[in-house]
Amino acid sequence: MKLTLKPCQMEQITVTYLDQMHHDLKEELSSHDIDPYLDMESVAEVIRSIIAIEIVMKDLMYEDMYMVWKLENGVEL
After folding, report:
1. Contact 22/54 with Cβ under 8 angstroms?
2. Alpha helices (runs of H) in the chain, residue ranges in sequence order
3. Full-model pTM
4. How big is the CA angle at 44 (ends 70 and 67), to the nearest 5 degrees?
5. How far apart, in whole angstroms, are the C-alpha atoms of residue 6 and residue 29?
6. Can you give the residue ranges of every domain in the chain?
């Protein structure tokens, strides 16, 4: 079976996947804040990943949609 996606469908899948990954990484940081279990290098890597996802989301989403997403989900570092 061959599945062909339209460009807008591929973009939506990417946004959905990155949104979930961003959420999971934020949860990881929250858990670490409650009960520290990550070393400093791992914490830095999680933070870098969160920042990278937010940058990509800004490029993928319309500006007004990104601003709403950022307000609801973004991390202020």
Report:
1. yes
2. 7-34, 40-60, 63-73
3. 0.85
4. 5
5. 35
6. 9-73
- Residue pair 58/66 in contact by the 8 Å Cβ criterion: yes
Looking at the chain, how many residues does it have?
77
Q: Using CA atoms, how far apart are residues 44 and 41, in angstroms rounded to an integer? A: 5
Residue 23's pLDDT is what?
95
CB-facing half-sphere around the CA of 34: CA atoms within 13 A = 6
Cβ–Cβ < 8 Å for 46, 38: yes
pLDDT, tens only, 52-77: 999 999 999 999 999 999 999 988 76
Q: Are 30 and 41 within 8 A, CB to CB?
A: no
